[in-house]
What we know:
binds N-(iminomethyl)-L-glutamic acid; alpha/beta; Urease, subunit C, domain 1; single chain; TIM Barrel; iron; seven-stranded parallel sheet; binds fe (iii) ion
Amino acid sequence: MSSSTAITNIATLVTNDPSLGDNSPLGLIQDAALVIDGERVVWAGESSKAPATDNHLDAGGKAVLPGFVDSHSHLVFAGDRTAEFNARMSGRAYSAGGIRTTVAATRAASDAELEANLARHLAEALRQGTTTMETKSGYGLTVEDESRALRLAAAHTDEVTYLGAHIVAPELAEDPAAYVALVTGEMLDACAPHARWIDVFCEKGAFGADQARAILTAGRAKGLHPRVHANQLSYGPGVQLAVELDAASADHCTHLTDADVDALAGGNTVATLLPGAEFSTRAEWPDARRLLDAGVTVALSTDCNPGSSYTSSVPFCVALAVRDMGMTPDEAVWAATAGGAAALRRTDVGRLGPGARADLVLLDAPSHVHLAYRPGVPLVGEVWRSGVRVA
Ligand code: NIG
Ligand code: FE
């Protein structure tokens, strides 16, 4: 039998439900209480109006917000790419070529090694407030290695993405058509049972529009829903293709034409921005302001991977987005919670209204704005998932 708990004395509660709070997108409530019953939130409002409950916890004037929803990461890998990072910070450019280094290390790793690495990174993210985390394959690129990556990932998260189309497998580099046939054929058959999503790195040096369309369409026929790595390194067709196929998300969106922005504004595809990648590759920032002003739904995620963005910290991404991408602190916190949920087409997470899963973060600060105001400071005090304190 479940029992109810009231968390009271919350200085600022972020509900992401405008009607519960101040009518802003964050649905802010000052001097608030939150009531949890079992795995779910059952009530949110002003402390003075809180209903009677079995248990009571005094938040001591902290801010409470929904657990972060990180809708883009690549956590099934072995090895790291310290040398590549060092070289890049000494002036060498980033290219998709480094992915091969991780493919070689991942293929050589045992299941136990891969799973330990995955679990370690998920735990690291959880300690920083991430309660829902998507993760992808993409460092195997054989039928066996891709399907094992997804099988391992599915043991740890519901949000699993098949990214056989990360780059053309090195052994088929001279025959990309054969690799696309594999990704849409035998590899898809082996991977689809373990995944919810299919993703393609649609970029020069990876896959073009026609290849990406064929791959995403084949995935959809097997019950996988599309998402796209789009317009990261240069202008290209990825964003338009994502909207055309009603992908849940177009990820990166660093190089956008006005037509790309219009397409996103007119469709149901979220623009997921990944500032850890621009930080770690010293690239130009995506222009969040331009997207928000056009009415596009924006999510913020880490892209945690050993090559282009080796951070699992959503708070770090929030701070970067506010400092360098034109987002207000409120917009960045929304994008890292409700935005991530939208990018995963989820309505049970990323908010703290009645019926939501009780996934939440207690900050060692009175307001969510401190996530950007105090960059680099470990402000995540407690993390709860499904009504249970987990960090
Ligand atoms: O999202 N863009 C492609 N994939 C990753 C990079 C992966 C890597 O460099 O290993 C990304 O940035
Ligand atoms: Fe990525």
